[in-house]
Amino acid sequence: MSQYIKPHPHWEDHEKPFMPGSPSAPHHESHIRMAYGLVAILVGLTGGLGNALVSVNLPTLQGELGLTPSEAAWLPAAYAMVNITANLLVFKFRQQYGMRLFAEIGLGLYAVLALLHLSINSAESLIFLRGASGFSGAAASTLGVLYMLQAFPRRLLGKALVLGVSITQMATPLAWVLSPSLIELGNWHGLYSFEAGMALCSFAAVVLLKLPPGYQIKAFEKLDFLAFALFAPAAGLLIAFLTQGYIRWWFNDTSLAWMAMASLFLFTVCSFLEYHRVNPLLKVRWLAQGSTIYFAVGAMILRFITTEQNYGMVNMLRSLGMGSEQMQPLFWVVFVGIVCGIVLSAVTFGPKTILVQVFAAILLIGVSSFMDFGRTSLDRPQDFFYSQFVLSIGAGMFMGPLVMIGFKQAFKYGPDHIVTFIVLLNVTQTLGGLMGTATLSTFQQQRQQHHYAAIVSHVNVAEPLVANRLKQQQQAVGPTVTDPMLRAATGTAQLAQIARREASVRAYNDVFLLIGILATGFLLWPVLLAAGPAIQSRRAQAAAGTSSNS
């Protein structure tokens, strides 16, 4: 039995909070509901844009700060390390100290950290601040969902939840759209100025329009902090392993192996502790159930295949010399596609359509990947409009139904399982994205080497076509390079560079094909799982019928 900390108002049955940690649901006038919806969008985008702006502009930040690729990768990694584990404490903080204090502290901290970014110029300080922003970013994303729930009557709770959890998906394409102008205004400081402005506006919004109160119960136990102290570094080391592995290369740096082993050890100790607790922070027994494992694997794969856009398409265009200015129109298309997917998911949401929406999202992502297969070095951002619009609709559709499927599974065992589900969802989405980038980057590099070797093996300077191409390259540098030997070497180097570019494009085509195959296999997986018992049942019935006839 939960121990209430404060007396709560007398609520009607339809006004009572869904559970401790959620606000009550009083009746609101239409204009108040609209205000809650607008605040939800503002706060949700604030929670997602902070990390999106850094990830999108990582090459720019790397150049401005003079960082190596490995050092620059710590900026988004630090954010993810804290963000992935923050909900372990954030949820219980809401339960014990209330919605309003949580909202004001969470967004107030975010605003302060965003302002501090403007006065920091060292990479080490920025990494620390990105980590701290991961905690406040998790609070902002949660508030976006809670405010969206207030914008709709309780009978439309499912649709409101779909909209609320999907808001942050709009952050990445919006970051691509806004970045060229922000960089032009103030280099990388322009990015943090915008983030600080968004955080201050969000803080003002939640102070002026407060969430209704909910139940406040005694939620924290002393061992919760020990569990967090074990889980947080375990998750952080795993994220560091995934973000640094394909940059340092997996087998070239022994520190990567130590990260992986330390992460596994800490996860094991944390699981052992939580398994033997009476009231654990993480419901390890529920996590070990088959249905939960199926959900986690499915959610991770679904997030994995969406990296076709943020890794495959983006990096291919970057390898062809396209910058954020050239890709800006493409990400307007992506943004519109995600909005269409979110709206379509919310409008068609219902108990009978949840699985249909998930399958439709997988199908659209797979179709998009096959559409992108066969790209050439002549393709430009506008050539990706149709395929990425299709993928964006699928990416916008899957998040809401995915949350509802997991939420129902967790809530069957009680409200105390919700914090475990929230952490599980955050882990699957963060690790799915990181594993997608790490795996596809490794695959792309291997395939590029293979294609480059194949291209070079067919290059024979004695052939007229190759000799003519070398002559053209030498003539192109003739006005600036007068030495014949140096001109010949420069022409050969440029031809090799063209070969590497073509090999890179072929490798990205392999990436698109791989994602399409994975999406197809993922789509067929539940069909095969369902077909197996059905086939066995029919065989058993046929065998029973044969034996009875004999």
CATH class identity of the domain at 1-221:
Mainly Alpha
Overall pLDDT level: 80
β-strand amount = under 5%
Total beta strands: 0
Q: State the helicity in percent bands.
A: over 70%
Give me the strand/helix succession: HHHHHHHHHHHHHHHHHHH
The number of helical elements comes to 19
Runs in which pLDDT lies below 50 for 5 or more consecutive residues are none
Structural class of the helices, strands and pairings?
Answer: mainly alpha
Radius of gyration over all CA atoms, rounded:
26 Å
Distance between the termini: 62 Å
CATH superfamily of the domain at 1-221: MFS general substrate transporter like domains
**How can the largest sheet be summarized?**
none
Which fold name corresponds to the CATH topology of the domain at 1-221? Answer: Growth Hormone, Chain: A
Characterize the overall form.
globular
| Quaternary form | single chain
Q: Please name the CATH architecture of the domain at 1-221.
A: Up-down Bundle
How would you describe this structure to a colleague?
One of its GO terms (molecular function) is transmembrane transporter activity. InterPro entries: MFS (IPR011701), MFS_trans_sf (IPR036259). This is MFS transporter. It is found in: Membrane. The mean pLDDT is 80. The chain has a domain at 1-221: MFS general substrate transporter like domains (Growth Hormone, Chain: A). Helix 8 (171-208) crosses helix 14. The N and C termini lie far apart (62 Å). The chain has helices at 30-56, 58-65, 69-72, 74-97, 99-117, 123-150, 157-166, 171-208, 222-248, 254-275, 284-287, 290-305, 307-319, 324-347, 354-372, 385-411, 418-457, 464-476, 484-549. It is mostly helical and 550 residues long.
